[in-house]
Design brief:
4 copies of one chain form a homotetramer. Helix content of chain A is 49%, strand content 10%. Chain A is of the alpha/beta class and 426 residues long. In chain A, the strands form 4 sheets. In chain A, strands 6-7-9-11-12-13 form a 6-stranded parallel beta sheet, with helices on one face. The first copy, chain A, has a 3-stranded parallel beta sheet with strand order 1-4-5, with no helix packed on it. In chain A, a hairpin with a 2-residue loop joins strand 2 (60-61) and strand 3 (64-65). In chain A, helix 3 (75-89) packs parallel to helix 4. Chains A, B, C, D: Residues 108-288 form the Xylose isomerase-like TIM barrel domain.
């Protein structure tokens, strides 16, 4: 299913005058305060987020799953959905594939499809947390399994994923390891870490020189006593032991209660060790909710760290990978992704508005109250007209969800693909 | 598959002399300290725990499931597995059924099977958290759904479960409600509570007069923003509004981090409002690990509250329902259940050994150090010989897991039922 | 120290034209969307928050305290500080006293001082968590102490606090109970709850008929194993047992990790059982940070519940007490309080802007995405011009902190009261 | 106050025959299972724990402090208290001093006192979290303060502490840094980390070559938004950047909810990066409760990691520092320390009993149930007779707390030092 550009422009037209008014007023205010409004809009336009192939269908929990209907049935349809998101939001231009779910049957056709939609291939994802017919079970772990045969199989799978990614033009491999144990004693904590280190090193060796390895951490689930890579410290330890192009991936839902995530981001940026992000939100654990829907201020503070780290030269903005990773149990996945892209844009834009010179002065002088005012000054601002302006300039929809609903997209997808179509994923 | 009693007695025989020595020494020590050893053994023998029908197969997480093989394929085979557990441990004599998974096709045959194995039917469980072909989806809730049609359907399902239970001789209905929301705004917090209250009241009205309603609470999962019954306070509020025979069910994994669960138990017992338990253990959330495997001291403290509450006349021991509710992702479910039954027995026995007179004196005098010593005096004791003695006296195995393995039970079950047999459950 | 009204108006004047422009644009937009802007401003003006007497000096932690200088040395100076806050913010018009810290030596003089500043006396606070020369120590508890003599003393203290409050025109008593235990076994969980119930009942009996009892809960600190009133459920249980005018006080920092506080608020409002609030913010525990500085979205969601509960007739807005309770370890307390009052105003105003009709429609239709959009539509709005307009209309400062700093208030207070003056408090 | 050795032996005599019986039975059982009982007793005897000088008086919380009476008034009396603990328990032989609280006025006299009591000087502790008359305030940080003058002062203080320690024969410096911030924006997360790294490097340079630097981490308190060294990862990062003899100190109470602490220990041991321990226990945060009083199984699992790490050659047992760090708010500090030393001994002994060969076999074969049984086999054992035997062999009391109470030690200390004597500490 493809959007008609004419309808989109027509719809935009109807919203244009009120947008002009709001954008004009905001732009004027920001200019008076010394901001380069055009520069801001350009930064917003340039910031693009990858969408994972598994986020296009309904997710689920261990208690069940409720299908949404019209889910993409194969890789081509997944690309089409991302093409739709791109057309509406102009905020995503790449897809992150998951192997074995997304092995292309015809590389040339997939590549040409992607090209026609303006979509490139972000980091590849391997899967050693499920059994899908491979000789050895991953029930008790993969890269850190006590049995060498299982570890070898898991390494080989990752190498295969790299090969697939090379053909598609991807430049990175994301390793999320579910390995761990459910009970004290089940695994040797030291040995399983050691084996993981060895396995990751082998995978790293198999990577092309222009690739990076993104090593994810997560404190628990699906294992509930210990996870081999539970925190950024362990991920960082492993990365440093395997090579320069191994860096730490931060998934916002992978932390213990009360963790200061923006500080972890700052500490990684400080070391030029941040591989990238999996955006989502959570109240309890790895809830995989729409990013910004629960803790919008946290998302803003994370962007403050990223922007200041980049501006200060600690870690280059371009070296960081951006991806959404959420699970849509009760929402239409495409609408959810549009909400996520909007919240990311809003948070990023607000963080751009922080008066960093003033903030630094407050920090140096110990003006705690002033520093808080500085952040609130940016956070309280309604920046949606800026975000909308950037989107319109790129040819996107003034109101992506509104247009998506007006066009009855989900209904059409269900007609095309069926009410029971089920996308691969969790 | 049935155990040969002769083999069991033979195996027991081989372990008997060392048991005699250990039990004799412990009994002698306990007697010197003024304990009635026979009385203790009788109490241990009398304490029986129900097993849920869904705990007999491998569990799973949203990331996948690893089958164990030989899982019971129907209700009859589930009863057989519990019969096996009973023969080995003499610690369980009832099953808790889950509808629609366990609707008997032939009531008479199921009842006669249960009778022949000495198994009765504990509280029934309804399911309004999944879709299994019913007209209205439970995706956005059941008893607290915004739509009356869905609420009515969910109430009717519960009434049907009561009808099934009546035929089997059950005396209770456990309601675990997954209802809630994933995002702020999705549900009206007040209205959804109100609707739940109304629905529970209807279900209560449909219950026979000698039944009780066990209302479970859980803070999150599968909903990750709000759950309608998140804590004991809400469960208690609802119970009090529907009637005297509605009480609060405590599942050990259904609490926020750092909750003092034994205090909740004490507060419920104080009000004669404790319906019963779902035993399991957890380190992070509703991990559903083997009870006592992570926090054995907590389990001991809970039994201290239950015993003191019963001895002081706050709530009668007999009025409380006892059930295991765990998920076996990496263990043989039958072995896991045997470990759970053993840990429950050990904790219960240690709690029986607390010198409550001395403890109360310390509490009244403000002797904080002395009170801790009192509890440690009981907790540090190795009570396994007492537990074993009780089991042997009832005809169980001296070493249940040892005998189960010696008899190659799982291998035989796989031969009978197949390596791919899959039990209903989570 | 008193502010000169002329200086204030002069300063306001200098900010007026830009405020006019911003307010005008916002008012116009809101009107177009169907809002009654004047009505909104009136609601903001009417919403007043009490300040506790102990929040006017520097707070501290168990690791030390860093004085701020110029702290109020007695009750009169405390009233003066609150008068200052009132003049600047027009958002507070009452003080909450803490006994024994704030026993007036001359009631008439205190009352006339308060009257002249336009300050009334909000709920009184008793102190049975510290020793200050009373015969029996509160080391092991007060209202729930195992010794009757201590309980009697604690009850008598509360009765005395009521007497003091009666003379000042207060209409409520807030009981925060630190009672609990540090170790398993130290206290009988059931008995200590029972004694607390008895003690509260005696206090309730001593209260005038037009007073209310505000019963606070807190999961831990200063006791670290169990706290007698750890959660809203226990507080509610106690309140219901003592009488209709006993209700539950919510302090935002008194919850276990990940608690959904807005749901607790909704559940209390549903029962007309919410006594009031202690506003602050926290990332870890009872951090007592400036409200809204860590989780502004949570504060907004709480106000959404309060407003909808009031509009739906569940609990009347006027029946709820509003108070700040924070500890200022690194900020000037007066500046901190101004930031808190501003964040409360902003959150309240945003919650007023929620299109509740549309939200309810989304909830009834199961439009999860739409419901989230509804809330974000209000939350993303920059409502500061509305808040400022209300303040200016009441005669307050356009920019309270700016004016406070321009006037060098803290410097003058230090000159008056000394750099080492120390206010009573924590 | 000194214990009479004769009275101690007399008291021991009265408990001897029952001890003999219990120890004999246990030793016989353990021998039959292949254990070297004498070897076990020797290991228990050799394991000694340092006591911090600040743990000898009553602790407190920000809500107040309740003195115990008879607290040591100066360093000499502190040494005497530790001498008493040593005589009774034979489980401690060193003290950890805190500067500026414990600066000796006469080094020779302190050293001779310590020698006569058989007490040596463990790691020194600096204090840059409080103001005690130094020129620059630590209110906004010390080693990571934005102002260089404050950082220089804090470095100089640490260098002074090293100088004092050198004179006393200490071989280590423990740095616990309270530095952090209470509000987003208050501090630059990256810069404050960088400054801390620089300051620690300077301190490291000032350390003698046979000293080690123990760098503590803590997620929050007294700062409640960010702490510069919040986790083992940051501590490890800093240590690695300053030199080989800088290692990570683990305080059991310094973790976010649900942290798997034994895994952190294993990860540090894996890298030979564990400096040592601060033993205590906690249910909520840095509760500083008696170690083993809340989570005894966790303490056992930690010792399992330490013993296996040492036996496997990952990190030498001798390279690790052992210290108690608790706060005694409701207990007699000396009794509390005796309970802590006993719980450490019990946990250590149980961990020694784990059949590691069998456990490793279970781990390699994926026998999850068997591995749990292995640990429970050791944990359920009542090892108190072994611990008592070791203590008696060294000349300690059979029942330390019993003897302490029989001798009325606290009463005598109050007579000597007064009921209001107050020890330095928190």
């Amino acid at each position: 299913m493809k959007l008609s550009l004419e309808q989109l422009q027509e719809y935009n037209q109807s919203l244009f005058s009120s947008h002009q008014e709001e954008f004009g007023f905001l732009a004027n205010q920001l200019s008076k305060e010394g901001n380069d409004v055009n520069g801001l809009v350009e930064k917003i336009k340039a910031f693009q987020i990858a969408v994972p192939s598994w986020a296009l269908g309904a997710g689920g929990t261990r208690f069940g799953r409720f299908g949404i209907g019209g889910e993409p049935r194969d890789l081509e349809e997944k690309l089409e959905d991302i093409g739709l998101l791109k057309a509406l939001t102009q905020k995503t231009d790449s897809v992150s594939l998951h192997i074995p779910w997304d092995i292309p049957s015809d590389y040339a056709s997939i590549q040409s499809k992607a090209e026609s939609l303006g979509i490139s291939f972000d980091a590849m994802n391997s899967n050693t947390f499920q059994d899908y017919g491979q000789p050895h079970s991953y029930k008790l772990g993969s890269l850190g399994n006590a049995k060498k045969s299982v570890r070898d199989q898991a390494v080989a799978h990752n190498v295969e994923v790299i090969e697939i990614g090379k053909k598609l033009g991807s430049k990175g491999l994301t390793v999320w390891l579910a390995d761990g144990s459910n009970f004290p004693g089940q695994a040797s904590l030291r040995n399983s870490l050691h084996w993981t280190q060895e396995s990751l090193s082998e995978i790293y060796q198999a990577m092309p020189e222009d690739w990076k390895l993104l090593v994810e951490y997560k404190p628990y689930e699906p294992n509930f006593y210990h996870t081999i890579i539970p925190d950024w410290g362990t991920s960082s330890l492993l990365c440093k032991s395997v090579g320069d192009r191994a860096k730490v991936l931060v998934d916002l839902g992978h932390h213990l209660p009360n963790t200061n995530i923006e500080q972890i981001v700052a500490t990684l940026v400080y070391q030029d060790m941040l591989a990238g992000f999996h955006f989502n939100d959570s109240k309890y654990g790895d809830d995989d909710l729409t990013t910004g829907s629960i803790k919008p201020y946290q998302l803003f503070l994370i962007f403050c760290e990223l922007i200041s780290g980049s501006e200060d030269g600690a870690q280059a903005w371009e070296s960081i990978s951006w991806m959404i990773d959420a699970s849509h149990n009760t929402k239409d996945p495409l609408e959810d992704l549009m909400q996520a892209l909007e919240m990311i844009s809003i948070s990023f834009t607000k963080a751009l508005l922080v008066n960093r010179e003033k903030l630094t002065a407050c920090q140096m002088e110990g003006d705690v109250v002033g520093a808080q005012e500085c952040l609130q000054e940016a956070f309280q601002r309604d920046v949606r007209p800026l975000v909308k302006e950037a989107r319109i300039q790129l040819g996107g929809a003034a109101d992506p969800i509104g247009h998506y609903r007006k066009m009855d997209v989900r209904k059409k997808l269900i007609q095309e693909r069926g009410a029971e179509s089920r996308s691969t994923g969790l």
